[in-house]
From TrEMBL:
<dbReference type="InterPro" id="IPR000652">
    <property type="entry name" value="Triosephosphate_isomerase"/>
</dbReference>
<dbReference type="GO" id="GO:0004807">
    <property type="term" value="F:triose-phosphate isomerase activity"/>
</dbReference>
<dbReference type="InterPro" id="IPR022896">
    <property type="entry name" value="TrioseP_Isoase_bac/euk"/>
</dbReference>
<feature type="binding site">
    <location>
        <begin position="13"/>
        <end position="15"/>
    </location>
    <ligand>
        <name>substrate</name>
    </ligand>
</feature>
<comment type="similarity">
    <text>Belongs to the triosephosphate isomerase family.</text>
</comment>
<feature type="binding site">
    <location>
        <begin position="238"/>
        <end position="239"/>
    </location>
    <ligand>
        <name>substrate</name>
    </ligand>
</feature>
<feature type="binding site">
    <location>
        <position position="217"/>
    </location>
    <ligand>
        <name>substrate</name>
    </ligand>
</feature>
<comment type="pathway">
    <text>Carbohydrate degradation; glycolysis; D-glyceraldehyde 3-phosphate from glycerone phosphate: step 1/1.</text>
</comment>
<feature type="active site" description="Proton acceptor">
    <location>
        <position position="171"/>
    </location>
</feature>
<feature type="active site" description="Electrophile">
    <location>
        <position position="99"/>
    </location>
</feature>
<comment type="pathway">
    <text>Carbohydrate biosynthesis; gluconeogenesis.</text>
</comment>
<dbReference type="InterPro" id="IPR020861">
    <property type="entry name" value="Triosephosphate_isomerase_AS"/>
</dbReference>
<keyword id="KW-0312">Gluconeogenesis</keyword>
<comment type="subunit">
    <text>Homodimer.</text>
</comment>
<feature type="binding site">
    <location>
        <position position="177"/>
    </location>
    <ligand>
        <name>substrate</name>
    </ligand>
</feature>
<protein>
    <recommendedName>
        <fullName>Triosephosphate isomerase</fullName>
        <ecNumber>5.3.1.1</ecNumber>
    </recommendedName>
</protein>
<keyword id="KW-0963">Cytoplasm</keyword>
């Protein structure tokens, strides 16, 4: 982490988990544990149906609410989809875009990721843009080239003055939900390379201000080591974000002075 230049952000991604009643129970439990973190921003990205309740439940805390996806159009005949404007009006601040599960199961492409980034920014949301490689791609030795392409594709057409609203999350696909985690050195190497790509696109000042998260099975046991890396500015947390004690532990690791 480097708080001198950029914000530390711990974001939970609940995926398709927790009913409304479970969301209420989670809120009551974690608010007592978490307090009001001073040195990092905390985000919970919850299923669409839980957003209004989550916004209300965490209104008096320092926990911002995010969504797990949005459509790239503002309105239209897109049955079952939700626009960035709809999310903004509900009180959402962040939105995850291009998560590997969206790419794998719902045919999300680099082209649609880019369109969603623009839609989110236009609506005044902070996109958390996910990039990452599969195990096969890592073993082929193309990780850095692939990540560079994904970053460039996602940010195509995004002006420099909008980059302060963008978060990049490096999520190695082979470490999501598998129990495997990139070593701190592996994660740091890729996050540093992402910053190099942004520097080439936008210059050093913009690059050093962009928050880059690690999103591959960060948990209560490995968070401190990962967050100690200079180019890892937080985490996009999956399973551990469903457990108040584990999520609080990660936030506490990120909240050190």
């Amino acid at each position: 982490m480097n708080r001198r230049y950029r914000k530390t952000i711990i974001a939970g991604n609940w995926k398709m988990n927790k009913t409304l009643s479970e969301t209420r129970a989670f809120a009551e439990e974690i608010k007592d544990m978490l307090g009001r973190p001073k040195w990092c921003e905390v985000v919970l990205c919850v299923p669409y149906v839980n957003i209004p309740a989550a916004v209300r439940l965490f209104k008096e805390s320092r926990i911002a609410i995010g969504a797990e996806n949005c459509h790239y159009e503002s309105h239209g005949a897109y049955t079952g989809e939700v626009s960035a404007e709809m999310l903004k009006e509900l009180g959402v601040k962040y939105v995850i875009i291009g998560h590997s599960e969206r790419r794998q199961y719902y045919n999300e492409t680099d082209f649609t990721v880019n369109k969603k980034v623009h839609a989110a920014l236009e609506a005044g949301l902070h996109p958390i843009v996910c990039v990452g490689e599969s195990l096969e791609q890592r073993e082929l030795g193309v990780t850095m080239e692939l990540i560079a392409y994904q970053v460039k594709a996602a940010l195509a057409g995004v002006p420099a003055d909008k980059m302060r609203h963008v978060v990049i999350a490096y999520e190695p696909i082979w470490a999501i939900g598998t129990g495997k985690t990139a070593t701190a050195e592996q994660a740091a190497e890729v996050c540093e390379s992402i910053r190099v790509v942004i520097r080439k696109l936008y210059g050093a000042r913009v690059a050093r201000a962009v928050t880059i998260q690690y999103g591959g099975s960060m948990n209560a046991k490995n968070a401190a080591e990962l967050l100690a890396q200079p180019d890892i500015d937080g985490g996009l947390i999956g399973g551990a974000s469903l457990k108040p004690a584990d999520f609080t532990s990660i936030v506490n690791d990120a909240n050190q002075e």
